[in-house]
Amino acid sequence: MEKTTNQKAWFLVLPVLVLVAFSAVIPLMTVVNYSVQDTFGNNVFFWAGLEWFSDTLASERMHSALWRQAVFSCIILAIEVPLGIFVALNMPKRGFWASFCLVVMALPLLIPFNVVGTIWQIFGRVDIGLLGHTLEAMGIDYNYTSDSTDAWITVIVMDVWHWTSLVALLAYAGLQSIPEAYYQAAKIDQASRWSVFRYIELPKMQGVLLIAILLRFMDSFMIYTEPFVVTGGGPGNATTFLSIDLVKMAIGQFDLGPAAAFSLMYFLVILLISWVFYTVMTSLDKREVV
Fold first, then answer.
1. CA–CA separation, 208 vs 188, rounded Å?
2. pLDDT at 72
């Protein structure tokens, strides 16, 4: 008897596909269209080919922004991942205080990006901000609007405050999946705290840590709202990351062709590095299993 396949379920998926086409595919094709053309207004376009891509690749402006972006993402990952694991390891496992800690850790994640930037913009001001005023009272010369080092420290601390909770919550979920028998066996074997972490807790957290690292990398590499609100990309170009530079090019200068080419290359860089992260970490995970 020949088996029949019911394809009616595709009708349920069709609205989602149409929504994705309008929200993702069509805007992407519009960007591709702009990236190979030039315009002087009045909806008149001229074919430019790959000119904008070659100009962007040779642009010192893009190289500088890419370098700043890469340094920022590396610093963020180097701080937030170990700090998130440390916080998760020291959170209560059950009871009232476990629930309390989970709620407190989730609070920064609920704050909108522009509000986070506004909070830290006011917090760091010397005249009215608690942080800026306290540092000035201690004799520390701090001004994130005129000193590039202070601006970098402010943006990094702001991101750590905002997003370390995500890593901690994911790591905590991985720790909660470990059976109590594992800890009992380690206690019988008189395993050290480091051995318990290395051979029991860390392997169980690898899956969620992969998700955390990918999410934090992609988000930190695309960060825009928070540093733009706090520093506006300054002082000078000290905190002008790729996203801020792209917006300045597209909206501030109205260079649609170069901005479109820039955005496509930006997208491909994020996609490529995320793929490398995923490939390396999944291969390490398979080795641990073997």
1. 28
2. 95
Residue 158 CB partners (closer than 8 Å, separation 6+): 116, 117, 120, 226, 230
Our CA angle for 161, 164, 167, nearest 5°, is 170
The pLDDT assigned to 88 comes to: 93
Share of the chain above pLDDT 90, in %: 30
Check residue 232 and report its DSSP letter. T
pLDDT score for 289? 54
Q: Residue 222: exposed, middle, or buried by beta-carbon count in 10 A (0-12, 13-18, 19+)?
A: middle
pLDDT digits (tens, 9 = 90+) for 242-289: 889 888 888 877 788 888 888 898 888 888 888 887 787 777 666 655
**First-residue to last-residue Cα distance in the chain:** 43
| Helices of type H across the chain | 9-20, 26-35, 51-57, 60-89, 96-106, 113-123, 130-137, 148-176, 180-188, 193-196, 202-221, 225-230, 242-247, 256-289
Provide the greatest CA pair distance for the chain.
87
CATH no. of 62-254: 1.10.3720.10
CA–CA gap between residue 189 and residue 196 (Å, rounded): 11
pTM: 0.84
d(CA 232, CA 158): 15
Task: Give the separation between CA 158 and CA 120, rounded to whole angstroms.
Answer: 7
